[in-house]
Amino acid sequence: MVKKLFIITGDYSGDIHAGRVVEILKQTNPDIEIEGIGGENLKNAGVKLYTNQSKMGAVGLSPKMIVDHLNLGKHVVDYLTKEYKPDMVLLIDYGAFNLSVSKFLKRAGIKTFYYIPPQVWASRKWRINTIKKNIDKVLCIFPFEVDMYKSYGIETHYCGHPLVKQLPEKADRDEFFERHGLDKNKKLVSIFPGSREFELKYLMKTFIKAGDKLREKHPDIQFCVSHAPNLSEKVYHKYLKHTDFKVIKGENQALLSVSDSLILASGTVALEAALYQVPMIIAYKGPWVFYFIYLLVRCIKMVSLPNIILGKITVPELIQGKLSVKNIVDETEKNLYNEEIRASRIHDLGEVKSKLSDKYSAEEVAKDIAASI
Questions:
Q1: 25-42 per-position pLDDT tens digit
Q2: Closest CA to 187 of 345, 333, 350, 343
Q3: DSSP helix/strand/coil, 188
Q4: pTM: predicted TM-score of the whole model, two decimal places
């Protein structure tokens, strides 16, 4: 009898991880039938898409987004429980939507695994109760998650972090610099201001002022800005039209790997930078009301993944009131010119990779599904 699997992803990164799981799963289980919500990666892996992620990737709490999510959730639950009836559903990341759907899957008796579960250890820890009630097995990516889930009686498998095996090798610095017209004799500081327009609104002016100040003090520094693929060139031109900062699109990992120091809005990119052992600072600011809400729901005081994994502050975190031109300049100077601090931070970032293990995450997930479906 053919086994059926349904996968739910909500964004581009989830689609990438899901695609790799499917590719490996089909190598050993070619007859498995797989459908899902995803993007090009799942589609290219041979998955029949129930729908794409166009209604999943919205950010914010607009009425339209809420209605879209509610409608999609209802339709997918009806499809799974009344028509497709899979042997298993694999949820990947995208906590708010997937946890809501999991309640209905549990009532229908559909086995449900969760890969890359919500970071309940960072904020909104009460969601772990929903996971305990509705998820049959958590496939986690951080080693410190295992004891937490097991303490709640939740079956858990530590799969390793997908970035460890998926991250490309460092780019060739000379080739990269030549291709983008960068000066090989100057240090490169790269800015990753986030992938949402409101993040650029709150961050870019400060980042540019800090960059100008750094170049005034240190003529041997040059700057690049990472262009998020979902944002238009017009958005970047609005902030950068009076600078000569180079904007580079579609080469995030290569840019990370050849940089001497980084200014990052918090996110997964910080973990990628850590795996390349590039000194960085985390700099983030948003509306004060959102920040106060964050303070109410957070469970830990650190925000950057490298610091959380190490259990100490190695990456400076300039959050909200601490975000200033002076602080960015001071910490970037330490990353570039203070040999003792630079060496210490690079050493600590090397510990991040060793703590994440060398497991091939997608392979671990595929094996677990094959053994359980």
A1: 999 999 999 999 998 999
A2: 333
A3: strand
A4: 0.80
